[in-house]
């Protein structure tokens, strides 16, 4: 392992039109009682034993950024918060907020990999860069491997490589690609392979397919939420979760609008205009949901009623969400009256450790 100070240097601005990847709101937090001793333990050994596991955590290691700049996908300077990822700041934030480990991912619009050769080379750089981050800091990071959905055969090959060779904790699927949501039959071979491997699938919004944003309203405010809702409903309607019972699917941003549309979806199902109410209720309790916006306390009661505390995962959307907002939304989560002490422990850490056994093993070392 290389020297810690040497390893914690990274920057990487990105172009917003290319990396429109994360909602500017999140949840990430302070573990009660984490003082200097706790911070020292976090740096030395993967955070305090009670530390949080951040499952909505983005990273842009230097090799990945260099590749993107070389291919004209990112500008050398400037860009949104996601493109300015820095390992020093990331570890400082994790230490300060009691985050033992972050499961890194690099969401990118599928369209940037429309060219097949670029999809093969770029996806490999993405995933090997994230695997290198985990190798250098095995008790601080896991990762979800990026799969290029416009080329399903390439996605299947990359899933095998990432899960078998690189030790990925799961895969990242953007909510739609080429106007197709994840329940589309074109993705059936990929889901069959992921089910065979009992994979964890982290979904991330890509922006609404064939839709124009509302003038003056940024995509991440509502369109990203609807994007996640659409892909979740497409999976339910297609019966994907019923066919592939060994899959675990995480919905970003507390599931978008999904848990809050339950009555409407069930009404439609009773009219024969959507999935049956029974199928919808099964799916809602099958999905996992991260806490990266909508932030507590507004969404929590409905989400708990729909899915239960055992399906909620702590998430921050770092670094797209700026530090003051991460602090604020995490504090809201910590004070949320809807969550008992036991539920807080499940959301912050225990659920993720059950879902991601390889990460759990690394943290036990």
Can you describe what's shown?
- By secondary structure, the protein is an alpha/beta fold.
- Helix content is 45%, strand content 12%.
- The protein contains 15 helices and ten strands.
- The chain has helices at residues 4-7, 36-45, 62-70, 87-96, 116-136, 152-166, 188-196, 219-238, 240-243, 262-270, 277-286, 300-307, 323-335, 341-355, 357-364; strands spanning 52-58, 99-105, 141-146, 170-174, 176-177, 180-181, 200-204, 248-251, 288-290, 312-313.
- The strands form two sheets. An eight-stranded parallel sheet has the order 1-2-3-4-7-8-9-10.
- Strand 5 and strand 6 form a beta hairpin.
- Helix 3 runs antiparallel to helix 5 (116-136), helix 5 runs parallel beside helix 6 and helix 6 packs parallel to helix 7.
- The radius of gyration is 19 Å and the shape is globular.
- Residues 1-49 have low confidence and may be disordered.
Question: Which terms would index this structure?
Answer:
15 helices, alpha/beta, 365 residues, single chain
């Amino acid at each position: 392992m290389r020297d810690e100070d040497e390893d914690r240097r990274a920057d990487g601005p990105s172009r917003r039109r290319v990396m429109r990847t994360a909602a500017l709101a999140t949840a990430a937090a302070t573990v009660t009682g984490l003082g200097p001793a706790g911070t020292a333990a976090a740096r030395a050994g993967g955070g305090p034993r009670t530390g949080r596991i951040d499952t909505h955590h983005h990273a842009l290691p230097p090799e990945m950024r260099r590749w993107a700049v070389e291919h004209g996908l990112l500008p050398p300077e400037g860009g949104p918060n996601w493109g300015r990822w820095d390992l020093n700041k990331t570890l400082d934030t994790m230490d300060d907020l009691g985050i033992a480990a972050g499961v890194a991912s690099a969401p990118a619009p599928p369209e940037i990999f429309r060219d097949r050769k670029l999809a093969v080379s770029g996806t490999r750089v993405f995933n090997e860069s994230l695997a290198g981050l985990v190798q250098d800091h095995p008790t601080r990071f896991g990762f979800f491997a990026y799969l290029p959905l416009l080329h399903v055969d390439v996605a299947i090959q990359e899933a095998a490589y990432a899960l078998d060779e690189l030790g990925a904790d799961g895969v990242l699927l953007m909510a739609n690609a080429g106007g197709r949501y994840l329940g589309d039959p074109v993705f059936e071979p990929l889901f069959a392979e992921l089910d065979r491997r009992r994979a964890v699938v982290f979904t991330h919004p890509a922006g609404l397919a064939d839709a124009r944003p509302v003038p003056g309203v940024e995509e991440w405010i509502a369109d990203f939420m609807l994007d996640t809702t659409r892909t979740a409903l497409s999976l339910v309607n297609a019966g994907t979760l019923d066919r592939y019972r060994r899959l675990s699917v995480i919905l970003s941003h507390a599931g978008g609008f999904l848990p809050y549309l339950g009555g409407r979806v069930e009404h439609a199902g009773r009219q024969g205009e959507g999935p049956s109410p029974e199928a919808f209720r099964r799916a809602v309790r099958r999905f996992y949901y991260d806490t990266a916006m909508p932030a507590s306390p507004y969404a929590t009661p409905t989400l708990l009623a729909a899915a239960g505390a055992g399906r909620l995962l702590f998430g921050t959307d770092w670094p797209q969400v700026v530090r003051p907002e991460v602090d604020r939304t995490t504090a809201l989560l910590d004070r949320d009256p809807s969550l008992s002490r036991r539920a807080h422990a499940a959301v912050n850490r225990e659920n993720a450790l059950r879902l991601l056994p390889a990460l759990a093993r690394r943290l036990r070392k």
